[in-house]
Structure formats: structure tokens, C-alpha cells
Amino acid sequence: MKRKDFTQSQIRYLRDRAEEQYENMRGSRSFRNVSFLMYIALVVLIALTIRSFIAEPIRVDGDSMIPTLIHNEDMLVEKMSYWLEDPQRGDIAIVFYPGYTESCVKRVIGLPGETVAVKDGKFLINGTVLDESPYWNGEIIGDIDPVTVGKRQVFVVGDNRNGSKDSRNPDVGCIPYAKIVGRVVAVVYPFNEYETFSRVTYP
Q1: 2, 9, 35, 64: which is the annotated catalytic residue?
Q2: 3-state helix, strand, coil in the chain (%, to 5)
Q3: Mean per-residue pLDDT over the chain, rounded
Q4: Is position 201 within any domain?
């Protein structure tokens, strides 16, 4: 029987039965399970989106950023600012080294086009000593010849200058922007070590 052969009363009857069936199904365990699973899937999707594109916690592994970051502390890494602007000197960044599958946390000190060198225990940027007193007051062991940072690259080092594998190592070198994950903005765990990191203002 085609729909045009139904009377108005029959159509109302069928619609009412369909609505009753839907209400019965809504109250059933299977319907509630499906709704719950859809809710969980949505929460997971939102969480993955936030971690991939906005921010995520990452645990410090190693001592290369002492005293700024300590082994097993949890950092909060934001990922959006580098969509809108280039890395800045002094940023604490999460980067990938060539051939590495795990990320590393380092500080940006050299920017595209600059010449970076180490002499007499200090970093020189374009021949001028870099005053790093906001986060480093030690003396670097060993000089390095001038290195020119390439286009859309940065020169990164660990705050534990004498215990860090970084851009001073020929196997690492300067890091392309494409290998920068985000910027560390805070230590969030342990809770009693909570600290935020603002952009460095150099003297």
C-alpha cells in the first residue's frame, strides 16, 4: 500500500506508535549504552584535539634544563602561539632532534640569520655577549666556532649548559621551525613546584 492510500487517522496512529517505540527505546539499556559511548567518544575527541593543537602536559626527562626544569616535573606546553609568531629568544621550547622519536626541551638563544658562538664561557650573538642573567649565571666549558642560524631555524641549548646535548653538537645543529612542538609556559606538577614562565626580557 502506498503512502497516499493511508487515511489521516492511520497516519496519526502510525506516528504515535513510532513515537512510543522511540520513547521505549530511549529508556532501554542498549540506548543508554550507545548514548554513553557516544559521549565518551566525544570527550576523547575533544581531549585529543586539545593535546594535538592547543596544549598538553609533558614530563621532564633528564637534567639538561636544571635549574629551570627538574627531572620528572610536568610542564604545560602551549602550541598555538607559534602558529601566529616565530619563536623568540629565551623561549623554552619542545623540539625534535634529527632522527629522534622523543621530544627534547631546550631554550632558544639564536634566531634566523644570527651568528652564535661560545667564547670565554659566554654565548656571543653576532659578536656581542648575550646577558643570560635571568636564567643562567654559570660559565660554559669549551668554546665553539661561530655558527650561522639558517632561515626558519633556531639555535637551542639546555640551561644546564655543561650537561646538555643541544645545537652546539654537530649531530643536532640548528632546529627547523617544523620540528618545534610548542612553548613551555609553566610547571604544573608537583603542585608545590607550580611556576609560570613569562617571555624573557634581556638586559
Answers
A1: 64
A2: 30, 30, 45
A3: 85
A4: no
- Cβ-contact 119, 143 below 8 angstroms: yes
90 within 8 A of 140, measured Cβ to Cβ: no
Catalytic residue selected from 103, 106, 164, 167: 106
Mark whether 66 and 166 lie in a shared domain. Answer: yes
DSSP annotation of 173: -
Task: Report pLDDT digits (tens) over 146-168.
Answer: 999 999 999 999 999 999 999 99
Active site residue 64: yes
160 and 125 belong to one structural domain: yes
- Annotated active-site residue 28? The verdict is no
